[in-house]
Design brief:
55% of the residues lie in helices and 18% in strands. With 97 residues, the chain is α+β, with helices and mostly antiparallel strands. The protein has one domain: GMP Synthetase, Chain A, domain 3 (2-Layer Sandwich), CATH 3.30.300. Strand 1 and strand 2 form a beta hairpin. It starts with 9 loop residues before the first helix and ends with a strand.
Length: 97
């Protein structure tokens, strides 16, 4: 079946709507949560209070001082893991609180 000139691929239309309404950062934040759940241990996930993206800074709030300290040493690895998994440069800095 041949497309008419005014027809577009549904995936392209959805991407255009996401960009038009500025939803990309929020979708990136949701996808970061999925990556976090996929790659982190159950203990780290259980002690993560909040995980959000502010501009290109990922802020991780932990309720355990020991885990907070441990994650602070791996900030660069966390950043690289998330960016690699998402296939684009979403996170430039990681802050662990």
């Amino acid at each position: 079946m041949k497309k008419k000139d005014n027809q577009q691929n549904l995936g392209d239309v959805v991407k255009q709507l996401i960009e038009y309404y500025g939803l990309s950062p929020k979708l990136d934040e949701i996808n970061i949560g999925h990556v976090w759940d996929k790659h982190m241990s159950k203990m780290i996930i259980r002690h993560t209070r909040n995980l959000y993206l502010n501009k290109k800074t990922l802020i991780i709030e932990m309720d355990s001082a020991a885990l907070r300290s441990e994650l602070s040493y791996g900030k660069e690895q966390i950043k690289n893991m998330i960016n690699k998994e998402l296939g684009k440069q979403v996170v430039e800095e990681v802050i662990v609180r």
